[in-house]
Amino acid sequence: MAYQAFYRVYRPQSFSEMTGQTHVKQTLQNALLYNKTTHAYLFSGPRGTGKTSAAKIFAKALNCEQAPASEPCNECASCKSINEGSNTDVIEFDAASNSRVEEMREIIEKVRFSPANSRFKIYIIDEVHMLSNSAFNALLKTLEEPPEHVVFILATTEPHKLPLTIISRCQRFDFKSHTQVDIVARMVEVLTDAQIPYNEQVLKIIAQAAAGGMRDALSLLDQVVSFSGDEMTIEDALLVTGSISQDMFYGIAEALLAKDIGQALTLLEQLVRDGKDPVRLVEDFITFFRDLLLIQTAPDLHDMLELATHEPRFEELAKRFEPATLYTWIDILSKTQQEMRFSNHTKIYMETALLKMAQADVPVQSTASAVSPELEAKVIQLENLVRELQQQVQNGAGSGAAAAPAEQKKRQRVQSSFKIPTGRIQDVLKNATKVDIQAIKTNWATVMNQLQRSHSALLNDAEPVAASADAFVLKFKYDIHCQMASENQTFAATFSQLLEQYAGKAYTPVFVPDASWLKIREEFIKKSGLKAGTEEKQSEAEEENPFSGEGAVAEEDPFISEAERLFGKDFVEVHDD
């Protein structure tokens, strides 16, 4: 008898022999045991994860003479004929080579005939996504309401290519990629049964190259066994699978750590000359650096290493790396992997990635250098203000008249850089209406909730005090908040857009400190009262002025309020000399 590959000889013949896919096996076995099977199933997932094998096992269990049972007996005539491929009631249909509508119509015409020797007539359609649109349309009605004796099992690696009308008529089972542990365990079973000695590190290399596919793993294992002869070695596995040795990983990682880019590029050139694919190299390096991170953060989880071998040299290398460096390198390699997909010059991208990794700084340094100059200036200004407040809290309010001029000069310096827009404020007051100011105040809380946290913090002590049809005056309790808001163009634009969204009008904010607002409004009331010549406007203006007359609220010292906000009222003591 001709030699058969491992993946054919050791194809699972029952659910218990299948590796992984517990969620699929348990659901199908319960349906078989309690006679709750349906007419159409869709098995989807990556290649080599057991879709076709599960379909054949399910077909055997449905037609087994011992049914209802959760497993096929593999002893009855029906099970044996399905295993041999001679059962006329189990039809395997390859949609990749029979995608035309004519082949599908031939199937549909035979669906109405009863099974010859079995309980069910089962159609296994592999790679069903390859069917043409006409074939899908021909299958649609039959798939929805087939005869009672017919079961359809559709298998595909690309379920997104199937029409939704087909998917909705099937019970869908998603097969997952096999883990490296599952693949290694299955290869151990195969080699033990075949009485072939093995090296577990060799099996890990093969499992890594298989990328979650059991069929790929068994095919590679077959190649390594044929190449090695009596004993499988790590070098043989690396050569057959196209992987690289751990010593090469060590060499390139140490060269990058020492910023010896010449050595790193020399080793990369050697790997490419040996026939290694740069795309595969990027993936392997990501996995290797991931193993280094794993050993750093969880030294006890060495069983979860995917590429590296747990040895003292590997642990020493992991200690030499900063986690931030490994995160940066993995990020660079991930971006390079995406860019390689659209280029034929993959080696150049790999070389560029090594240069970036050797020259990469700590992420904290890169983010600090990206801070805008405007933000740095504001931070310096706030730091100076905090130092002044801390000095005042420690030394008290100063020595009477000597402290007052100094405090006044500090306030003038803070206010000197902001120019009060007196003309614009007077224009708003001339055209101010109660309807506009009421519309702004009504939507004020909603707009505040929609703003960014940094923007809404500026408005904690701000208040809209007058509004016209296209603008409104926004009064700030503290001069520094007013200045910061006026210099932030993004804040003004965002605030105006939100007001337009909720109030129905586009109001442009005009910023003014509290003290300046009182003076401007008082002057406007006097001028408007003189021009009007009536007592009515004067009384209305005075009524709208909550700070005029004898009941004016005493203005709080902004330095004291700021100190209380920063350090808490319990830690601030004010001494009056």
From TrEMBL:
InterPro entries tied to this protein: AAA+_ATPase (IPR003593), ClpA/B (IPR001270), DNA_pol3_clamp-load_cplx_C (IPR008921), DNA_pol_III_gamma-3 (IPR022754), DNA_pol_III_sug/sutau_N (IPR012763), DNA_Rep/Repair_Clamp_Loader (IPR050238), HLD_clamp_pol_III_gamma_tau (IPR045085), P-loop_NTPase (IPR027417)
UniProt keywords, alphabetically: ATP-binding, DNA replication, DNA-directed DNA polymerase, Metal-binding, Nucleotide-binding, Nucleotidyltransferase, Transferase, Zinc
The keyword Nucleotide-binding is assigned to this record: yes
Pfam family for this entry, one: DNA_pol3_gamma3
Keyword Nucleotide-binding: yes
SUPFAM superfamilies per the UniProt record, alphabetical: P-loop containing nucleoside triphosphate hydrolases (SSF52540), post-AAA+ oligomerization domain-like (SSF48019)
Positions of transmembrane segments: none
Chain positions covered by the region annotation Disordered: 396-416, 531-556
Molecular function GO labels: DNA-directed DNA polymerase activity
Documented EC number(s): 2.7.7.7
CDD domains listed in its UniProt record: AAA, HLD_clamp_pol_III_gamma_tau
Compositionally skewed regions (Low complexity) per UniProt: 396-406
Catalytic activities: DNA(n) + a 2'-deoxyribonucleoside 5'-triphosphate = DNA(n+1) + diphosphate
Top-level division of the source organism's lineage: Bacteria
Family: Belongs to the DnaX/STICHEL family.
Name of the featured protein: DNA-directed DNA polymerase
Organism the protein comes from: Planococcus wigleyi
